[in-house]
Amino acid sequence: MKKKQSKKKTQNKKKKNYSDKTAFANLEKTSNTVTTPKRSSNGIPKYVADRMARRILFTAGIPTILGMSVFVVSYIIVTRNIAEIPPSSTIAISALFFLLGLAGLSFGILSASWDKEPGSFFGIENIPMNIQRAKAAFKPATQNFEEND
Fold first, then answer.
1. How many CA atoms lie within 13 A of 133 on its CB side?
2. 72: which residues sit within 8 A by CB, 6+ positions away?
3. Does this model's pTM top 0.85?
């Protein structure tokens, strides 16, 4: 009796062997025809992101650098016997600067104007409007649609 051939063996025989040249040529042809549709972005415009980055640099960057420099200054004062500083004071002052940097990060993001022209120097008038935008961004899409109707 003769054994039946498995389907796998018969499928292997049906496959065509392409040379590398023709396989890659066909790949290039198909990749050129595929076009991705352009989506409209609802993200933050570049000019607003740049404005936020500048505000964050000053309002969060400076306190963060001061928070790190507290350790260096404290070390120099203690090692040169200028004053005796308890370690808990160094940590508390550093933590205060880091918290100030965290608040500055939030302020830098929320105070940036979304208009083409830059707003006021501090941008306090933009904070309530930007908080509303942030709240709307976290709502499900159906709730945003119902509010607009």
1. 14
2. none
3. no
Q: What is the pLDDT of residues 25-47, one digit of tens each?
A: 665 555 555 555 555 556 778 88
Share of the chain above pLDDT 70, in %: 66
Name the residue type at position 113.
S
Nearest CA among 45, 48, 63 for reference residue 126? 48
User: What is the C-alpha to C-alpha distance for residues 56 and 52, in angstroms, rounded to an integer?
Assistant: 6
Which among 31, 93, 33 has a CA at the least distance from the CA of 63?
Answer: 93
Domain boundaries, the chain: 58-138
- Residues 7-42 as b/e (b if ≥16 CB within 10 A, e otherwise) read eeeeeeeeeeeeeeeeeeeeeeeeeeeeeeeeeeee
Question: Residue 3 corresponds to which tokens in the numbers above?
Answer: 């054994």
* Distance of alpha carbon 136 from alpha carbon 98, whole angstroms: 29
